[in-house]
Amino acid sequence: MRRESTLVDRITRSQIYRSIVRSGYPDTPRNQALVVLGNVYLHLHPVRLRRHALAIPYTFCLGGLSFFMFLLLTVTGVMLMFYYIPSTAITPEGNVQAYQNMIDLQSSVTLGMLLRNMHRYAAHAMVIVVFLHMCRVFYTGSYKPPREFNWVIGVILLFLTFLLSFTGYLLPWDQLAFWAITVGTQLASYAPVIGTQIRFLLIGGYEVGQ
């Protein structure tokens, strides 16, 4: 029993555990208040703020802008799904179906051009804003204890943003998108030892296709 409690104490006192669970079990009023203050849903508008944290240059609202771009991409992406088919089949017009969907979306669908441009520019903006947000976090030292785990999650989300932007670039299936993805995946294949496997993972095969 003592050995088990010693092991639990070592785990709960470790730096990794304290970076993930910063408030402890909510068995006291203090821990309960810390859980509420550290809640992700209250992160944008917490209950109490220090005076210097209210200044715009402190965060430049980059976290909120990243979340807003994500919501905008989600809404416009779901709406675009009703008109877009990711297929490489040839249409009667002689175009690839994915590319023909883009043409029809811009010419035949009401406000289709607006919808597509909102999604496209929001995707570019999200990449820039997320990158600047990570730079701001690093510059202000917000990655230091006890926020190491937040930094790890942020880096993972940054790479996921880059990856989703890279894969989404191919969706229009025009010449610019096709050759940009071809060159980009060829560059990935030059990585030592696992370059070929990385390229295969990125495009799901040995060549760019559906």
Give a structural overview:
By secondary structure, the protein is an all-alpha fold. Helix content is 64%, strand content 0%. The protein has helices at residues 2-13, 15-20, 29-37, 56-59, 62-81, 97-107, 112-139, 148-168, 175-188, 195-203. α5 packs antiparallel against α7 (112-139) and α6 packs across α7. The longest helix has 28 residues, at 112-139. The radius of gyration is 23 Å and the shape is elongated. The relative contact order is 0.08.
* First-residue to last-residue Cα separation: 58 Å
Overall geometry comes to elongated
Helix content: 55-70%
| Share in β-strands | under 5%
Residue-averaged pLDDT? 83
Q: In sequence order, what are the helices and strands, one letter per element? A: HHHHHHHHHH
Q: Uncertain segments of ≥5 residues (pLDDT<50)?
A: none
**What Rg is obtained from the alpha carbons, in whole angstroms?**
23 Å
Number of extended strands: 0
Q: Total helix count?
A: 10
Class by alpha and beta content: mainly alpha
Mind summarizing the main beta sheet? none
List keywords for this structure.
mainly alpha; 10 helices; elongated; single chain; 210 residues
Chart the SSEs and their pairings:
Blueprint: H1 2-13, H2 15-20, H3 29-37, H4 56-59, H5 62-81, H6 97-107, H7 112-139, H8 148-168, H9 175-188, H10 195-203
Helix pairs in contact: 5-7, 6-7, 7-8
Summarize, please:
The protein has 210 residues and is an all-alpha fold. It is 64% helix and 0% strand.
